[in-house]
Amino acid sequence: MTIRLEELLRAAFPDATELAVEDRTGGGDHFQVIVTSPRLSGLSLVDQHRLVYDALAEPLADGTIHELRIKTRGGG
Amino acid sequence: MALKERIQETIDSEDVVLFMKGTPEQVLCGNSARALDALRAVGAPVTAVDVLPDPAIRQELSALSNWPTIPQVFVRGELVGGADIVQELAETGELREKLDHALGDGWRHRGGEERTVELTEGSGPATLRLVP
Protein backbone atom coordinates (compact mmCIF):
# COMPACT_ATOMS: atom_id res chain seq x y z
CA MET A 1 0.00 0.00 0.00
CA THR A 2 2.85 2.41 0.67
CA ILE A 3 3.87 1.91 -2.97
CA ARG A 4 0.42 2.91 -4.25
CA LEU A 5 0.43 6.03 -2.08
CA GLU A 6 3.92 6.90 -3.29
CA GLU A 7 2.75 6.56 -6.89
CA LEU A 8 -0.22 8.83 -6.29
CA LEU A 9 1.97 11.43 -4.61
CA ARG A 10 4.63 11.18 -7.30
CA ALA A 11 1.97 11.81 -9.95
CA ALA A 12 0.73 14.87 -8.08
CA PHE A 13 4.20 16.19 -7.21
CA PRO A 14 6.46 15.15 -10.10
CA ASP A 15 9.04 17.75 -9.03
CA ALA A 16 9.20 16.59 -5.41
CA THR A 17 12.69 16.60 -3.99
CA GLU A 18 11.58 14.59 -1.00
CA LEU A 19 8.73 12.11 -1.00
CA ALA A 20 8.27 9.47 1.66
CA VAL A 21 5.43 7.25 2.80
CA GLU A 22 5.70 5.40 6.07
CA ASP A 23 3.31 2.76 7.32
CA ARG A 24 3.34 3.89 10.95
CA THR A 25 1.86 0.79 12.51
CA GLY A 26 2.62 -1.88 9.92
CA GLY A 27 -1.12 -2.43 9.56
CA GLY A 28 -1.41 -0.82 6.14
CA ASP A 29 -3.85 1.90 7.15
CA HIS A 30 -1.99 4.43 9.34
CA PHE A 31 0.40 6.47 7.25
CA GLN A 32 2.84 9.33 7.54
CA VAL A 33 3.69 11.12 4.32
CA ILE A 34 6.40 13.70 3.77
CA VAL A 35 6.44 15.86 0.66
CA THR A 36 8.88 18.60 -0.28
CA SER A 37 8.08 20.17 -3.62
CA PRO A 38 8.34 23.48 -5.44
CA ARG A 39 4.61 23.09 -6.14
CA LEU A 40 4.05 23.75 -2.44
CA SER A 41 6.11 26.94 -2.31
CA GLY A 42 4.26 30.05 -1.31
CA LEU A 43 1.18 28.17 -0.14
CA SER A 44 -0.18 28.19 3.39
CA LEU A 45 0.16 24.95 5.33
CA VAL A 46 -3.59 24.45 4.94
CA ASP A 47 -3.34 24.69 1.15
CA GLN A 48 -0.22 22.50 1.11
CA HIS A 49 -2.05 19.78 3.00
CA ARG A 50 -5.11 20.18 0.78
CA LEU A 51 -2.96 19.29 -2.24
CA VAL A 52 -1.79 16.15 -0.47
CA TYR A 53 -5.36 15.26 0.45
CA ASP A 54 -6.36 15.82 -3.18
CA ALA A 55 -3.61 13.50 -4.36
CA LEU A 56 -4.76 10.82 -1.93
CA ALA A 57 -8.49 11.44 -2.31
CA GLU A 58 -9.25 7.94 -3.51
CA PRO A 59 -7.56 5.92 -0.73
CA LEU A 60 -8.95 8.42 1.78
CA ALA A 61 -12.48 8.04 0.46
CA ASP A 62 -12.48 4.26 0.18
CA GLY A 63 -11.17 3.80 3.72
CA THR A 64 -7.76 2.45 2.73
CA ILE A 65 -6.22 5.26 4.74
CA HIS A 66 -7.62 5.21 8.23
CA GLU A 67 -5.23 7.81 9.61
CA LEU A 68 -2.90 10.14 7.78
CA ARG A 69 -0.13 12.34 9.08
CA ILE A 70 1.23 14.93 6.69
CA LYS A 71 4.43 16.91 6.68
CA THR A 72 4.95 19.30 3.79
CA ARG A 73 7.55 21.83 2.78
CA GLY A 74 7.82 24.15 -0.17
CA GLY A 75 10.98 24.64 -2.13
CA GLY A 76 13.11 22.37 -4.22
CA MET B 1 -31.65 26.08 11.80
CA ALA B 2 -30.10 23.56 9.45
CA LEU B 3 -27.08 21.64 10.64
CA LYS B 4 -24.84 23.29 8.08
CA GLU B 5 -25.80 26.74 9.37
CA ARG B 6 -25.22 25.70 12.95
CA ILE B 7 -21.75 24.49 12.09
CA GLN B 8 -21.02 27.75 10.30
CA GLU B 9 -22.42 29.77 13.18
CA THR B 10 -20.24 27.91 15.66
CA ILE B 11 -17.15 28.46 13.51
CA ASP B 12 -17.96 32.14 13.15
CA SER B 13 -18.92 32.91 16.73
CA GLU B 14 -16.41 30.93 18.80
CA ASP B 15 -12.81 32.08 19.23
CA VAL B 16 -11.22 28.66 18.82
CA VAL B 17 -13.23 25.66 17.65
CA LEU B 18 -11.95 22.09 17.66
CA PHE B 19 -14.03 19.58 15.73
CA MET B 20 -12.96 16.26 17.18
CA LYS B 21 -13.85 12.63 17.76
CA GLY B 22 -15.00 12.44 21.35
CA THR B 23 -14.87 15.18 23.94
CA PRO B 24 -12.02 16.87 25.82
CA GLU B 25 -12.80 14.57 28.77
CA GLN B 26 -12.91 11.47 26.60
CA VAL B 27 -10.95 11.76 23.38
CA LEU B 28 -11.63 8.89 21.00
CA CYS B 29 -8.98 9.41 18.33
CA GLY B 30 -5.22 9.87 18.38
CA ASN B 31 -5.22 12.80 16.00
CA SER B 32 -7.95 14.58 17.94
CA ALA B 33 -5.83 14.08 21.06
CA ARG B 34 -2.79 15.58 19.34
CA ALA B 35 -4.74 18.66 18.27
CA LEU B 36 -6.24 19.12 21.72
CA ASP B 37 -2.85 18.66 23.39
CA ALA B 38 -1.31 21.28 21.09
CA LEU B 39 -4.07 23.76 21.93
CA ARG B 40 -3.68 23.01 25.64
CA ALA B 41 0.10 23.38 25.40
CA VAL B 42 -0.29 27.03 24.43
CA GLY B 43 -3.20 27.58 26.82
CA ALA B 44 -5.73 28.34 24.10
CA PRO B 45 -9.43 28.61 24.92
CA VAL B 46 -11.13 25.66 23.23
CA THR B 47 -14.71 25.14 22.13
CA ALA B 48 -14.96 21.47 21.25
CA VAL B 49 -17.52 19.86 18.95
CA ASP B 50 -17.82 16.09 18.94
CA VAL B 51 -18.51 14.92 15.37
CA LEU B 52 -19.32 11.34 16.33
CA PRO B 53 -22.98 11.65 17.43
CA ASP B 54 -24.11 12.34 13.84
CA PRO B 55 -22.14 11.45 10.67
CA ALA B 56 -23.82 14.41 8.96
CA ILE B 57 -21.76 16.80 11.10
CA ARG B 58 -18.56 15.54 9.56
CA GLN B 59 -19.99 15.56 6.02
CA GLU B 60 -21.33 19.08 6.28
CA LEU B 61 -18.17 20.33 8.00
CA SER B 62 -15.85 18.90 5.35
CA ALA B 63 -18.03 20.37 2.61
CA LEU B 64 -17.82 23.78 4.29
CA SER B 65 -14.13 23.69 5.06
CA ASN B 66 -12.80 21.79 2.05
CA TRP B 67 -10.84 19.63 4.50
CA PRO B 68 -11.50 15.89 4.48
CA THR B 69 -10.34 14.73 7.90
CA ILE B 70 -11.01 15.20 11.60
CA PRO B 71 -9.81 17.00 13.70
CA GLN B 72 -10.21 20.52 12.34
CA VAL B 73 -9.25 23.65 14.23
CA PHE B 74 -10.67 27.09 13.47
CA VAL B 75 -9.60 30.43 14.94
CA ARG B 76 -12.15 33.21 14.51
CA GLY B 77 -13.70 31.55 11.50
CA GLU B 78 -10.47 30.62 9.75
CA LEU B 79 -9.37 27.01 9.26
CA VAL B 80 -5.97 26.67 10.90
CA GLY B 81 -5.60 23.00 10.02
CA GLY B 82 -5.68 19.48 11.35
CA ALA B 83 -3.54 17.84 14.01
CA ASP B 84 -0.26 18.03 12.10
CA ILE B 85 -0.47 21.74 11.35
CA VAL B 86 -1.74 22.73 14.79
CA GLN B 87 1.00 20.69 16.44
CA GLU B 88 3.64 22.25 14.20
CA LEU B 89 2.35 25.79 14.80
CA ALA B 90 2.26 25.17 18.56
CA GLU B 91 5.86 23.99 18.53
CA THR B 92 7.16 26.90 16.46
CA GLY B 93 5.27 29.52 18.47
CA GLU B 94 3.18 30.56 15.49
CA LEU B 95 -0.03 29.36 17.10
CA ARG B 96 0.36 31.89 19.93
CA GLU B 97 1.04 34.61 17.38
CA LYS B 98 -2.02 33.61 15.41
CA LEU B 99 -4.16 33.73 18.55
CA ASP B 100 -2.70 37.11 19.54
CA HIS B 101 -3.44 38.41 16.08
CA ALA B 102 -6.99 37.05 15.94
CA LEU B 103 -8.08 37.49 19.56
CA GLY B 104 -5.84 40.16 21.03
CA ASP B 105 -3.72 39.09 23.98
CA GLY B 106 -6.70 38.72 26.33
CA TRP B 107 -6.93 35.00 25.58
CA ARG B 108 -3.72 34.42 27.53
CA HIS B 109 -5.53 35.33 30.75
CA ARG B 110 -8.45 33.01 30.20
CA GLY B 111 -6.64 29.97 31.55
CA GLY B 112 -7.27 27.69 28.61
CA GLU B 113 -10.98 27.41 29.33
CA GLU B 114 -12.66 24.52 27.56
CA ARG B 115 -16.26 24.03 26.64
CA THR B 116 -18.28 21.85 24.34
CA VAL B 117 -21.00 22.56 21.82
CA GLU B 118 -23.49 19.90 20.82
CA LEU B 119 -24.65 20.13 17.24
CA THR B 120 -27.03 17.23 16.92
CA GLU B 121 -29.71 17.69 14.31
CA GLY B 122 -33.04 19.05 15.44
CA SER B 123 -34.57 22.27 16.56
CA GLY B 124 -33.34 24.69 19.15
CA PRO B 125 -30.04 26.45 19.63
CA ALA B 126 -26.70 24.72 19.96
CA THR B 127 -26.04 23.62 23.52
CA LEU B 128 -23.05 25.06 25.30
CA ARG B 129 -21.62 23.72 28.48
CA LEU B 130 -18.39 24.28 30.33
CA VAL B 131 -16.05 21.34 30.71
CA PRO B 132 -15.50 20.86 34.42
Provide a concise account of the structure shown:
The complex is a heterodimer of chains A (76) and B (132). By secondary structure, chain A is an alpha+beta fold. Chain A has helices at residues 2-12, 45-55, 57-61; strands spanning 18-23, 30-36, 67-73.
SSE topology sketch:
The complex is a heterodimer of chains A (76) and B (132).
Chain A: H1 2-12, E1 18-23, E2 30-36, H2 45-55, H3 57-61, E3 67-73
Chain B: H1 3-13, E1 16-20, H2 30-42, E2 46-50, H3 55-65, E3 72-75, E4 78-81, H4 83-92, H5 94-103, E5 114-118, E6 127-130
Parallel strand pairs in B: 1-2, 2-5
Antiparallel strand pairs in B: 1-3, 3-4, 5-6
Helix pairs in contact in B: 1-3, 2-4
**Name of the CATH superfamily of chain B:** Glutaredoxin
CATH architecture call of chain A: 2-Layer Sandwich
With helices defined by DSSP (H or I, 4 residues minimum), what is the helix count of chain A?
3
Please give the order of strands in the largest beta sheet of chain B.
4-3-1-2-5-6
Biggest β-sheet strands, sense, barrel of chain B? 6 strands, mixed
Largest interface: A-B, 12 and 15 residues
Main CATH class of chain A: Alpha Beta
CA gyration radius of chain A, whole angstroms = 12 Å
Radius of gyration of chain B: 14 Å
CATH superfamily of chain A: BolA-like
Which shape of chain B, going by the Cα principal axes? globular
